[in-house]
TrEMBL record:
This is Molybdate transport system ATP-binding protein. Keywords: ATP-binding, Cell inner membrane, Cell membrane, Membrane, Molybdenum, Nucleotide-binding, Translocase, Transport. The keyword Membrane applies. The lineage of its organism: Bacteria, Pseudomonadati, Pseudomonadota, Gammaproteobacteria, Celerinatantimonadaceae. It comes from the Bacteria.
């Protein structure tokens, strides 16, 4: 599989960046970390907007920087699309003219996407005559992404593209990014410090702190690492891939491999794949299947490991549901001892429908 290799170094008086990572050159890689940890610096270096010393970056076979050879490809020669926190559109041009600006820069035989397809994908086909000042923040960002895509980039860089939107607009916008991810074969490096965006979008997660990478890997596996609970801001959680199968009794039913899960009703079409997030603190364990519980999701699982939680009196239990689907449960040390939990033990996990997010 082709990869994006980045080795970036930067030494400032009170900040040191030292990154050595191989990211998959497909899907969405999210750089996540607190403000000032170096995420934007990485994107700028990837785009060639900053030339960092002793650095190296290469996408597949294309080397864009190798300071050992004094090799540096300038920004305008890198096939990259860059979407910033706030869309910088040309205000004196309408949407169609803004899009043509990106489109015309590319020779016809190098174009990988069509204007019509990109407009449809991002839901802007009916806005082509509008001036940017008449668009909402979310619509402006969609136009900015469309313009970046029309340059047929080999890599798309997105620096917190939703940060200027309110919560309702963010939720409206996320499905467009999911479609982008599902329908186009362009790797994306996406900077965020919003866990919801990470869960919905990331294939590969890079957790950063103070200029360094603390954890990096496929989303599901990275979240299983107990260290991620500290880095990921709002506690340990698991991500489960499901498909919507029905809506009934105010609930939405999901297929998770051969098992069924129920969540509070969501307005999602039947057949659509969704990623669900379940906080470890919302999962409980029993040794037998409860017969008289209000909890709707009762599933057999196997204990894989028991690791210390963030607090000394808590234990993070790693479990496997059917088809090796990983799930974390956060229990008190007392409960673990009381149930005598050990690896390979078969137990029942309980998850409230309202706790499946
Ligand atoms: N041109 C510069 N001169 C001096 N310091 C800089 C410069 N650019 C960035 N820095 C510092 O480098 C560090 C990393 O900045 P960077 O913008 O990459 O962080 P970030 O993780 O993207 O933050 P945020 O999430 O707030 O955007 C910060 O401490 C910042 O103050």
């Amino acid at each position: 599989m082709s990869e994006l290799t980045i080795r970036f170094k930067r030494q400032l008086s009170d900040f040191e960046l030292d990154i050595n990572e191989q990211l998959p050159a497909q899907g969405i890689s999210v750089l996540f970390g607190e403000s000032g940890c170096g995420k934007t610096t990485i994107l700028r270096a990837l785009a060639g907007l900053e030339r960092l010393p002793e650095s190296f970056c290469q996408l597949g076979e294309h080397c864009w920087q190798d300071e050992q050879r004094n090799h540096f490809v300038p920004t305008y020669r890198r096939p990259i699309g860059y979407v910033f926190q706030e869309a910088s559109l040309f205000e004196h041009l309408n949407v169609a003219q803004n899009l043509q600006f990106g489109w015309r820069r590319i020779a016809p035989k190098q174009r990988k996407v069509s204007m019509g397809d990109v407009c449809q994908l991002l839901g802007i086909s009916d806005k082509l005559e509008r001036r940017p000042c008449s668009l909402s923040g979310g619509e402006r960002q969609r136009v900015a992404i469309a313009r970046a895509l029309l340059t047929s980039p080999q890599l798309l860089l997105m620096d917190e593209p939703l940060s200027a939107l309110d919560l309702a607009r963010k939720r409206e916008f996320l499905p467009y990014l999911e479609r982008l991810h599902n329908e186009l074969d362009i790797p994306i490096v996406y900077v965020s410090h919003a866990p919801e965006e990470v869960i919905r979008l990331a294939d590969h997660l890079v957790l950063m702190k103070q200029g360094r990478v603390c954890l990096s890997g496929p989303l599901q596996q990275t979240l299983l690492n107990p260290k991620s609970a500290q880095l990921f801001a709002d506690g340990a959680s698991s991500v489960i891939n499901t498909v919507v199968t029905s809506h009934l009794n105010g609930l939405t039913e999901l297929a998770c491999g051969s098992k069924v899960l129920q969540m509070s009703k969501r307005d999602i079409p039947i057949g659509q794949k969704i990623r669900c997030r379940i906080f470890a603190s919302d999962v409980s364990i029993s040794l037998t299947k409860a017969q008289d519980s209000s909890i709707l999701n009762l599933l057999p699982a196997t204990v894989c490991s028991l690791k210390p939680g963030v607090r000394p009196d808590e234990v993070l239990v790693q479990l496997e549901l059917a088809e090796k689907t990983p799930l974390l449960a956060l229990l008190s040390r007392y409960s673990c001892q009381h149930l005598k939990l050990i690896p390979n033990m078969v137990v029942w996990v309980q998850i409230k429908a309202v706790a499946i997010l």
